[in-house]
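Box S1 | Example of a co-folding query
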Amino acid sequence: MSSAGGRPHLAIPGPSVMPDAVLSAMHRAAPNIYAGELIEMMPQLTADLTAVARTAGQVAIYIANGHGAWEAALANTLMPGDAVLVPATGRFGHGWGEVATSLGAQVDLLDFGRQVPIDPQRLEEALRADKDHRIKAVLATHVDTSTSILNNMAGIRAAMDAAGHPALLMADCIASLACDRFEMDAWGVDVMVAASQKGLMTPPGLGFVFFNERAAQARAGLARVSRYWDWAPRACPEMFYQYFGGTAPTHHLYGLRAALDMIAAEGLDAIWARHVRLAGAVWAACNVWGQDGPLRLNVADPAHRSCAVTALALDPPDGTRLRDWLASHMGVTLGIGLGMETPEDPHSDRAFRIGHMGHINAHALMGVLGAIEAGLTALEIPHGHGALEKASSVLAA
Ligand SMILES: *Cc1c(COP(=O)(O)O)cnc(C)c1O
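Box S1 (continued) | Returned holo structure for pyridoxal-5'-phosphate
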């Protein structure tokens, strides 16, 4: 019998749960795009965005998803034929590299697989081998949402500096921004891409590219930049429409304003700490389930796990069975296994993910964990007992 009636909960790693404050801020009549409130709110909005990114640099906003932000970052820094180094730790690392390839870049791929983070030593060696500095940028995913691997961006910057290599460091923080600690300036990141629908709690549709002075200089040195993707007028517009290369994403801006207010009210440090604690509860429960059954966390070392998303595996096809059961019986949607295909499991049916990014608190998370426990029981998937008690004790600590 289904118990899925009531408010559904989306526990996928983006789009994430939207706060009521964001939804109600968007529920309004069409605003004027030529004068008034919308125009006046922009300087504070961009200041608050750069504060979340921890940068004194600039931000360009695009009516786009994360893929658009990827392309925008590359369109402002590369010409066809330029080389980039892509250290990949999952599907999204490969994805950004594929966008670079499609723009005519030469992509040097360093594949770290799907279970361990980028090894700064190997990165340093690859950069040292690039004696004539063909590589213009390193494209690193801070959190690869497919594997839930957290990469050490400061360590990557240190490896680039140790190699004495001038490439730009570009970070994909689409999953991690406002979930896992990220310090753009302190960690030496030159370009960072993000999107509205994950830690920023706003519907999909806004892409962000943050860039520092070094990156602005790289942009200024290019022979040409696509007029639409050009970040310069978007970051420093003379007219309102230039922020967006055309009509503003009116309602998204009101939603984002509300989300940024919530982030400011809670405080980034408190938000990061909340995600650490909630992720700790997820991992504690998963460890107990796994003691007496097939459930496995994808990333063995907690220090290499994101606090925004957790990738897990059962035996195939139980990942898919569990997701289906939770959706139909519990009103909870878990994330699919993404990029986890193997020859034995060609549709990633063993893999699934729990999204715990953005607008999530302890009771919502305990609901997800309780629903998973019910699913493991109902589907007769062997699992250890006492997982919810363990998760509760993490939250109570
Ligand atoms: C979600 C995500 C993307 C892709 O974003 P879209 O909005 O789906 O285009 C890219 N990189 C990471 C790390 C992500 O989490």
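The mean pLDDT is 98. The pocket of pyridoxal-5'-phosphate is lined by residues 14, 65-67, 92, 141, 143-145, 172, 174-175, 195, 204 (CB under 6 Å).
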